[in-house]
Amino acid sequence: MEPTRHCMRTSQTLLRTFTSSPARDTTLPAFLVPALAQRPQQTSRFSTSSPHRSKIGRAPLSLPPGVTFKIQEAPQLKDDARVSRNQPGSTVEIEGPLGKMTMQVPAYVNIRHDEETRTHTVRIVDQEDKKQKAMWGTVRAYLQNHILGVSEGHAAILRLVGVGYRATIESSAVTKKPEYPGQQFVSLKVGYSHPIEMGVPQGVKASTPQPTRILLEGVEKEVVMQFAAEIRAWRRPEPYKGKGIFVNDETIKLKAKKIK
Description:
Mean pLDDT: 81
CATH superfamily of the domain at 154-247: Ribosomal protein L6
Structural class: alpha+beta
Protein name: Large ribosomal subunit protein uL6 alpha-beta domain-containing protein
Distance between the termini: 89 Å
Keywords: Ribonucleoprotein, Ribosomal protein
Family: Belongs to the universal ribosomal protein uL6 family.
Largest sheet: 4 strands, antiparallel
CATH class of the domain at 154-247: Alpha Beta
CATH topology of the domain at 154-247: Outer Surface Protein A, domain 3
Organism: Zasmidium cellare ATCC 36951
Strand order of the largest sheet: 11-12-7-13
Domain Large ribosomal subunit protein uL6 alpha-beta: 86-153, 163-245
């Protein structure tokens, strides 16, 4: 037992000598300190934020012929400055053959212009901030919709599926008062005891190529699709007979009837 205790005391003495030595190039023998010689490798730190940039936000905005893109710059912010989500930023004015639209972007969004390629690039101040990353692609999508709206316009086609379902466009209504001069009204007959009358929003043009089709056209996509959703709400597609009001290429999977 004495030789074993002597070896243990010798190992502890050598360990204290090596660890307390100021020399930087001193290393411990692996057979003396196996636990220190087999340290696990350091792993990368856990991060909740994605290192990838926004695929939609980083895509450039191309301007078709006849469309102008003007930016009224807001006071510049430093790269490390923290900005509020609701703080106003630059104002973008997009004008084309079909009209003009303006949009105010947040203060942390920067838009760069390339004269040679006629493209605009959307950037944010801090790519690690979750709120800024969330709004990066949203701002770019809104700007792209505005560019398409003033150049080509947006449209929505509604299909009325059902026995006796039909729609007409009227210049006046019985249950509604016009909100602006020359407002049109959509009159729906979709199975109720009375016709449904809805005023067409300003900036939207409504027509009925067929009694069971409604065509909505406008410059602002959000207004066009919102009005289409309000019309659809009167007869949502049901899954048993497939009746209802369908928007664009909307379909519904039919269910089997319950047989008692």
